[in-house]
UniProtKB/TrEMBL annotation:
Pfam families: Translin (PF01997). It is found in: Cytoplasm; Nucleus. SUPFAM superfamilies: Translin. This is Translin associated factor X. The lineage of its organism: Eukaryota, Fungi, Fungi incertae sedis, Mucoromycota, Mucoromycotina. Keywords: Cytoplasm, Nucleus. GO terms for molecular function: sequence-specific DNA binding. It comes from Syncephalastrum racemosum. GO terms for cellular component: cytoplasm; nucleus. Belongs to the translin family.
Length: 240
């Protein structure tokens, strides 16, 4: 093989690598964008008298199809070679699915239930889900749970908000163990989880303690102020 042919083959190999990487990154961005829309659809549904999650489930189907488009490029060693290019999409999707699961069951989604979304009719896994993506996705899910808790406190559903508060405390305890032993990246999520828990606790405090100090219309104004500030934060995150 002469030197020209050698460098030509190297160029072709690199071109294929960069083309595949760009394709994976684009699909991951699409998955991330659709997952955010999935979450927003869930929040809209919770404001209905009888929540209808049809729009959200349609988004889930669209996202699963995007993952199917991604799967051929990340088989075998390519999964780990390109994992940093698409793990963010997995985290966003798991965040959305975990939120839907909580709204419909009141429980935390299990890793096996996430895996089942990526299996064919014969039970074969057509794309792998890393444990780290599952855990980090749950960390993001706590932020959506906080926003939901603030929303229902606004409508006077204090008992349900208190249930979410206890749920977040349990998750915090589990994340503290993981942050110190297994996943350093969990420490960043733990900070956000602490912030979410603090906001829910303050909202419950406002309802339980300060609510009795004000006329009903003034109390509702206080809670609406909480809601407006948290909605503003969500809009900023969506723009990012």
């Amino acid at each position: 093989m002469d030197i020209t042919q050698f460098f030509t083959e190297c160029r072709d190999t690199l071109d294929k690598h960069y083309d595949k990487r760009e394709r994976i990154i684009k699909l991951s961005r699409d998955i991330t964008a659709q997952s955010k829309k999935y979450v927003f659809a869930l929040h809209r549904a919770t404001k209905q008298r009888k929540p209808n999650y049809g729009e959200a489930l349609d988004k889930q189907k669209e996202i699963i199809q995007l993952f199917k488009n991604l799967a051929p490029d990340v088989q075998g060693v390519n999964y780990y070679r390109y994992s940093r290019s698409f793990s963010g999409g997995f985290e966003e999707f798991i965040e959305a699915v975990a939120f839907y699961h909580y709204l419909t069951t009141g429980t935390l989604i299990k890793k096996q239930e996430i895996d089942a979304l990526f299996q064919d009719e014969q039970g074969n896994q057509w794309i792998h889900v890393q444990d780290s993506d599952y855990i980090l996705g749950l960390g993001d899910f706590t932020g959506e749970l906080m926003r939901y808790a603030i929303q229902i406190v606004t409508s006077g559903e204090y008992d349900e908000a208190l249930k979410i508060c206890r749920f977040l405390r349990e998750m915090k305890a589990d994340f503290e163990l993981l942050a110190g032993q297994l996943l350093p990246a969990v420490r960043k999520k733990l900070g956000a989880l602490n912030g979410s828990l603090n906001k829910v606790e303050k909202a419950c405090y406002t309802f339980q303690i300060r609510g009795s100090e004000y006329p009903k219309h003034m109390y509702e104004a206080i809670i609406r102020d909480h809601q407006a500030r948290y909605d503003a934060e969500r809009d900023v995150e969506a723009d990012d």
